[in-house]
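Question (not urgent): is this output format expected?
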Amino acid sequence: MNTHNLTTKLAPHNIYLEIQQFYALQLKILDRGDGEQWARTFTPDGVFQAADMPTPLTGRATLTKAIEHQTHKHEGLILRHWLGQLTIEQLDDNTVHAQSYVMVYVIPNQTLLDGDVHFRHHTLCNDKLTRTNGTWHVNNRYVTTDGNYK
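Got this back:
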C-alpha cells in the first residue's frame, strides 16, 4: 500500500539522513546473514510481516531464527538488498512512518566473471520506526512484493 502523496508531511533532512544511514546498516547486517544483529534493529516486540506470510514474526528471538533459517536456505549465494525511493513521514519527535522500495539481488558465491547476478524481487516496505535513546528501531514492518514471482 503506497500511502504517501504530495500532502504528506515529510521529515526534516537530519531525520531523513539518520534513517537512511539506519537502513544502510540494517541491510548490510541482513545481507551478511547476522540474524541476532538484524533482530536488534527492531524493538524488543518488533513485528515483521510480508503479504505472503500466514502470520507475522514477532519479537527479536523469532526474527533471529527467521534470518538464520533464510541464511541456511541461501547458503552458497550472496543476497543484496538495495533500498530506494525512501520517504519518511514524521509522526512525532521519536516516531516516523518510512516507506521505500527494496530490490533484492542474488549473486552466486563466485567472481562476477563466473556467475550472473539475478534480480530476485521488488518490494514495497512500510515501516513504523521509533527512536529510543537516540537509536532508531523498527517497531512494525510490512512488506509487499510487486508482481507474481515464483
